Each structure stands twice: as structure tokens, then as C-alpha cells.
Amino acid sequence: MHLEDFPMDSHSCPLKFGSYAYTKTEVSYIWLRGASQSVVVAADGSRLNQYDLVGHSVGNETIKSSTGEYTVMTAHFHLKRKIGYFVIQTYL
């Protein structure tokens, strides 16, 4: 986490799905409905006190290690800190 722009910063939080038990040749993870429709965030279910959820992105990546190559599905959630929450909690 980089705090140079605190309290007006933004972050990208990754959520990764994969297996280190099976290599890329044994199992391959893909987004079922494609990258644009695979992650659905409910508008009323995504309330955070300190952050606004400004977007998300998904993708696949291959991780290489000494035991082989592994497929990983990744969803990134893009968050922006609410300055009003920080000001109220710190100064009031």
C-alpha cells in the first residue's frame, strides 16, 4: 500500500483464484461469461465506510515456479478513499 497521496489515495485490491496442486496442462481456469460480465457487484451491497468502489477488472495470468506453470484468475477491485470520512474521523 502506497500512502504518498493519503488521504486522497486509491488502491487496487486483487482477488486471485487458482491451484498450486495442478499445473497449467492439468487444469485451466477461465471466466465463464467472459471478462466483462464475470464479476457482478451489487450497488447496495458494496458499501464501505472508508472507500468507494469505483470499478473492477478481471483477467487471467500464468504463474511460473520451480514446480511448473499455473493458471490463475484474478479480479481487481478499484477503491478510492472517501476524504469526508477521513476528515470527520480525524478532526471531529
First and last CA, distance: 26 Å
**Percent helix range:** under 10%
Described by the principal axes of the CA atoms, the overall outline is elongated
How many domain regions?
A: 1
Strand content: 35-45%
GO molecular function: chloride channel activity; extracellular ligand-gated monoatomic ion channel activity; GABA-A receptor activity
Protein name: Gamma-aminobutyric acid (GABA) A receptor, alpha 2
Main location: membrane
Subcellular location: Cell membrane
Task: Explain the overall architecture.
The structure is a single chain. By secondary structure, the chain is mainly beta. The chain has one domain (10-91): Acetylcholine Binding Protein, Chain: A (Distorted Sandwich), CATH 2.70.170.10. 10% of the residues lie in helices and 41% in strands. It is built from one helix and three strands. It has a three-stranded antiparallel sheet. The longest helix is centred in the last third of the chain and has 9 residues, at 83-91. It is elongated. The two termini are 26 Å apart. 2% of the residues are buried. Residues 1-83 form the Neurotransmitter-gated ion-channel ligand-binding domain. Keywords: Chloride, Chloride channel, Disulfide bond, Ion channel, Ion transport, Receptor, Transport. It is a multi-pass membrane protein.
